[in-house]
Write a structure and sequence with these properties.
Elements (H helix, E strand, L loop, with lengths): L5 H35 L2 H4 L14 H7 L4 H32 L5 H13 L6 H10 L6 H26 L2 H9 L4 H12 L1 H17 L2 H6 L9 H6 L9 H35 L2
Helix pairs in contact: 1-13, 3-13, 4-7, 4-10, 5-7, 7-10, 7-13, 8-9, 10-13
Length: about 280
Amino acid sequence: MRPLPASTSGMLRRLPLNAGALVVFVLCVFPVYWMVLTAFKPTPDIQAETPVFLPTSLTLEHFSAAVNADGFWLFWRNSLIVTAGCVLLALAVAIGSAFAVARLRWKGRRGFVLMVFIAQVAPWEALLIPMYVIARDTDMLDRLATLTLVYFMITLPFTIVTLRSFLTAIPKELEEAAQVDGCTRAAAFRRVTFPLLAPGLLATSLFGFITAWNEFAFANMLIIKNQDDRTLPVWLSSFSNVFGTDWGATMAASTLFALPVLILFLVLQRRVATGLAGGAVKG
């Protein structure tokens, strides 16, 4: 019996892996597909006893209902404010911390790095009750500033670790050469090193944006009385009308909620992939 060609044999060996990858892909993508499809379905198709996977007609009435719902733009603005504040704060603090860890030698540096790694792997859900107690005792409940600080604390360890890896990979000689040419240490960092950190900055910014934009538990717990300070995830959980949940409008609102992250990722896709890979293997 003639043996199979090497290319055919390789394809057969990869067949189980490809099949498994296809199953995982379908399981991950189908909920998103169903959400977007339901947002465009006419109401009779949504309420039909038999699921409609390929509707014969599409409608934008659910998007109109979601956009015109009470508080949609207010809570969109709240989410944007909290997310932007969290990302900017994390970047500002992490750049200085990463520089101190990667470039300077000081007592306690190893202990600081260890604490950052512990904070990164710690389950933040375990801090829900302590955070609530602290916010209650300091009169910080029902404030967007409190939510911004919590999200900043959650995203900061990852940002420090990633930027530290990038700084470690950038040769110190570049800064030293700039200092020889007359730059101060701060100016050398700003003019030489900072531009080279762009992939890491983009990767960590996207991570912080996704984390803060999608977070529900802390937002639901820390914003209790002042409902005007709720964020979009909390608003979506209570999106209903007097006749019950409007699934079409809910799916439309969820689609609009996911749209900024999708657009941001598509725009920054290549740089973010480079940043995450570089932060994972360097340093």
